Amino acid sequence: MAQVLSQEEIDALLGGLDEIAPEEEEKPKGPEKEEGDILPYDFKNAASLTRVRFPAFDVINDYFNRGLRTTLSSILRVVVDSTVVPTEVITFKEFLRRVPVPSSIHVLKMEPLRGHVIMIVDSQIVFTIVEIFLGASQFGKIRVEGREFTSIEQRLIKRVVNAILSDLERAWRPIYPVTLQYVRSEINPQFAKVAQDDDTVIVTKYQLELEEITGFITMCIPLTILQPIKPKLQTAFQGEEGTDPQWRQGIIQNLRLTELDFVVPLGRATISGGELLDLDEGDIIQLDTNIDELLLAYVQGLPKFKGTPGVKRGQRAFKVESIITNPDDV
User: Fold this and answer.
1) Which pLDDT tens digit goes with each residue over 42-80?
2) Domains in the chain and their CATH numbers?
3) pLDDT digits over 167-216, tens only?
4) Is the CB of residue 104 less than 8 Å from the CB of residue 184?
5) 93: left (phi over 0), alpha (psi -120 to 50) or beta
């Protein structure tokens, strides 16, 4: 038969627990880190810990965000609001891990840069755009999970993507003119391998709000593609997108009025000092050029033209026969 504790024994046990509990709370759960301790560093994911500063991306994102808002509002005939999410620098493997399935993934080519970039449109945004195109009165009723995009849905979203690419080209124009070419579309992110898993990528998101629906358009650009134009992206100052016609015309006019030295050597001859002293008026000096040979014309000391000498309207003249594009070849 089990022994039953009395009330006094129960109170004694509870009192003992109250005395032990504070001592246990005072014990540290683990060793405290003192100042100067060595911390582990993950070299494999060092790229995700590196902070790449490209101030020009703020300019590109701002231009593209304004164009994106205007273009989508015009195409969809509804008010579309968009905001830029701060840019992330992560590994490509980490980026693919965050992409949900299915997703509207578009692989693009940025000419003249080498490589491919990715544009992703959230499934919720895709279905909302399709509903708007097809005249639905209520949005967000389509089930997103568990199905792929139909051919009609892919065709409609491709129309929107092509319009977005024009805005993206205009956004890049002040920094570095690029031409974006549509390559292909994918649904599974594993089929959109535009970089190695450990390569560093720059990820920029644009949050869209259509009626009561919220989603993202995401741009993923491998850092290796941007290496040739890295100095341009690291400067905060950007020039004007357009050109003042009056300023341009003034520069051209000043160039046309600039005076230059134009020299056409007829040839060379070597004579002695005695022969030079014996020269009289009417004597002929034999040069090292033939009468039918083209002469070189020098502009500011550089060979620019080939032609023949002559006289026009009583003035010495030079008839240009060809233009020298590379002075080193002369």
Assistant:
1) 555 444 445 567 788 888 888 899 888 888 888 888 888
2) 47-233 (3.40.1550.10), 247-278+285-329 (2.30.330.10)
3) 999 999 888 899 999 998 888 888 888 888 888 999 999 999 887 788 88
4) no
5) alpha
